[in-house]
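Thread: "does anyone have the structure for this chain?"

Original post by V.I.:
We have the sequence but no experimental structure in hand. Need at least a predicted one for the grant figures.
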Amino acid sequence: MRTQKHSLHRRPLPNAAVQQFKLETWHKYSLYALVAALFASGLVWLLARYFLRVTGEYGESIHPLEHWAMQAHGALIIPLSFLAGGLLFQHMRRAHRALRNRYSGWSMLATLLWLALTGYALYYFASESLRPYWSAAHWIVGLALPLLLWLHIRLGRRLSA
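Reply from O.Q.:
Generated one for you, tokens below.
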């Protein structure tokens, strides 16, 4: 009997593989900690930028927290990118094939890509006239990220129960 090598339809995952899209504990808590730290550093930057301006003899100047918060925020992106990339095979691909939590998963991926794109734009090619727009596009979505992550987790747990 001849087996078909290629098909337009994917074979469903075996039951053991379906359950393997749950994250390991260290991965899950590392992601939670990094998202919380990114949220906190972004929030500190927002507060320093818009509410803690220092007025000196030459006018308004930046608050020292603004610079440090931005540096911490940029540094935290590196490990988050590494851990988010680790989700691709084990978590995202298998959950997608198992038809689990697709809408919130794709929303999470689109949000992370948007934040990466706008963050890159702010760092590399935003002109001074467009910087406020790129910045708002970044921090408005960034403030919504913890809520979207919570919703994604909540829906995933509800579906698995």
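V.I.: this helps a lot. Residues 131-160 form the longest helix (30 residues).
O.Q.: and Helices lie at 15-18, 25-50, 64-85, 87-97, 102-124, 131-160.
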